[in-house]
Write a structure and sequence with these properties.
Number of helices: 11
Oligomer: single chain
Number of domains: 1
Order of helices and strands: HHHHHHHHHHH
Strand content: under 5%
Mean pLDDT: 79
Shape: elongated
Length: about 240
């Protein structure tokens, strides 16, 4: 009996050896953002309108302060400026400035979707490149700096099923975040400010959790299918005379 594994089975097994973070840990990690960019914004705005005579523009600008402070604290703790943190900080400051300069509160309400629509567009554009952006995002969260798992992850790209998974996830996030921006835009011009603050936050985090759940389920299905293929190929190899 030949007990040597098929080389393609070995490669597939190696390529699937990396571990992904749990969905629950990802959802837990959203809570600081929900509190700062969702709950605090709504509470501060409502308090300003209920107990002061400030304008909508001023109330919205003040409601962004918790998120601004939170972003600054994160950057200080990291002792480095990451692209996402820096861009978040810039959008908050720029939106406050533009809101005061123009006196248009709608600009502020659209602010949060600038990040999501930009990311969505980047996702869709990255499909034109050899490896979409989600190849690198998933590698960052699943592999980190582990050299062995890095090789395993890179090796997975040769498999059509893995490439299909990466492209599907990229399309998923790109489409959902683009839709989020369009819906928020419609809400900004049809609903009151208070309604937009509530419904837009619910929309954003609902779509983010939905995309995360689908991403994890697709990944679990890919790993299950790969494991089944490895078992089948191993059996076929051991049964050869």
């Amino acid at each position: 009996m030949n007990a040597t594994l098929n080389p393609s089975a070995t490669d597939a097994e190696l390529a699937q050896s990396f571990k992904s973070p749990s969905l629950w840990s990802l959802i837990i990690s959203l809570w600081p953002s929900i509190l700062l960019n969702g709950v605090c914004v709504i509470v501060v705005y409502q308090l300003m309108k209920a107990f002061t005579s400030v304008s909508d523009v001023t109330a919205l600008a003040l409601s962004a302060l918790p998120a601004l402070v939170g972003t600054l604290i994160t950057l200080i703790r990291q002792r480095s400026v990451d692209v996402l943190g820096a861009f978040t900080l810039i959008t908050i400051v720029a939106s406050i400035g533009l809101t005061f300069l123009t006196g248009d509160a709608k600009l502020f309400l659209i602010r949060e979707s600038l990040l999501t629509v930009l990311f969505g567009v980047i996702c869709l554009i990255s499909l034109l490149f050899p490896k979409p952006i989600w190849f690198y995002i998933i590698r960052y969260f699943t592999v980190g700096n582990n050299a062995e798992q890095m090789l395993a992850y890179e090796a997975a790209w040769k498999f059509r099923s893995f490439r299909g998974y990466i492209r599907t996830v990229t399309i998923l996030w790109g489409v959902l975040y683009t839709i989020e921006f369009l819906i928020r835009l419609a809400m900004v011009y049809t609903l009151t400010i208070s309604q937009v603050l509530v419904f837009s936050s619910i929309l954003f985090y609902a779509l983010t959790i939905l995309a995360s759940v689908l991403t994890f389920r697709l990944g679990a299905r890919l790993r299950k299918r790969s494991t089944q293929n490895n078992v089948s190929q191993t059996r076929a190899g051991t049964e050869k005379p």
